[in-house]
Amino acid sequence: MTNEIQTLHLDEVIKNYSQDMTGKVVAITGTTSGTGFVCAREVARKGATVILLNRSSERAVKALGQLQEEVPEGNFDWVDCDLQSIESVRNAMKTIRSRYKIIDVLVNNAGVMALQDKATPDGYDVQMQTNVISHFLITKELFPLLKKSSQARIVNHSSMARLGGPLKPQYFEAKGGDLGGDGTEEENMSFQGPRWERYHQTKLANAAFTYGLKRKLEEAKITNVIPLLAHPGLALTNLQITTAADGGMEGGMEGGSEFMHQAQSAEDGATGIIRAAMDPQAQPGNFYGPAAGWKGFPDLLTPEDLLYDDSNIQINWDGCEKAVGEFAI
């Protein structure tokens, strides 16, 4: 997990904004590279048992081996989980419930960005199902185990792409492949057009889920489960490589581009979710990320109004429940 970009903030976050995780169980999606890998490594170094939620692949096998090499004393448990399959997610959650009685931290980290207008086998937009619907399902299925923790945390990952227009119900429906098309090369290279609108919808939905969950927990007077939000800024991870490979933005965000020279390391990009997972002072609804937007220390941020807008919260909750069933708090 090294690159040419110097890591500036990870050590400070670990030193001043983390805690001993011995005896705690942390589940993280998307740990084969990037922010998820770094988060898994750091919470394992602090003593946590780490459940790695990745679909079966050579990358997953390689990442598990690398984590075990970098944290020889670490306790890692890989559970096969394909976020583009509702059946796979349900089966993965059954596996976790059969192995564990308590989950202390759930980090909904995995994501895809600006991909083509394609449907998953379940019929949903590939970005919306991967980034939002499957994470809603994971949280719903693990919630009984989270409630058993003395202080559970649910960490959702947004991005700068959260900023924009409101959520729209059609993006949550089984209309994958019929949500605006792929856009022009000019649009894609300037981060505009339908690919980027679909991505925006998912990153705003992740935030709306956080604040919708916060409201429902408060209404139910549940105080031992804390919903938190983070964003990585612009970090050099495989997210950009996947997008470029999908024909989304040749010359825009691949690793050697001029734009990506502004990025921070994957380690620093992970500091938001790491702080959310381990900061002893974390409070419900805290939002961590670079204050300047693209890069920097994971400060405590003030969420924008659209993140807890009533309509956005309702559209996200209703759309996800329609896809995967009621989420009983």
How does this structure look, described?
The chain is α/β, with parallel strands linked by helices and 329 residues long. The chain has one domain: NAD(P)-binding Rossmann-like Domain (Rossmann fold, 3-Layer(aba) Sandwich). Helix content is 40%, strand content 12%. It has helices at 10-16, 34-45, 58-70, 86-99, 126-146, 185-189, 194-219, 238-245, 266-269, 271-278, 310-324, and strands spanning 25-29, 49-54, 75-80, 105-108, 152-157, 225-230, 287-290, 298-301. The model is unreliable at 240-245 (pLDDT under 50).
* Strand neighbour order, sheet with most strands: 3-2-1-4-5-6-7-8
Number of strands: 8
SSE ordering: HEHEHEHEHEHHEHHHEEH
The CATH superfamily is known as: NAD(P)-binding Rossmann-like Domain
* Total DSSP helices: 11
Between the first and last Cα atoms, what is the distance in angstroms? 38 Å
DSSP strand content: 5-15%
Percent helix: 40-55%
Main beta sheet strand tally, sense and closure = 8 strands, mixed
CATH architecture: 3-Layer(aba) Sandwich
CATH class: Alpha Beta
Structural class: alpha/beta
CATH topology title: Rossmann fold
List segments where confidence is low: pLDDT < 50 over at least 5 consecutive residues.
Answer: 240-245
Shape call: globular
**Arithmetic mean pLDDT:** 93
Radius of gyration: 18 Å
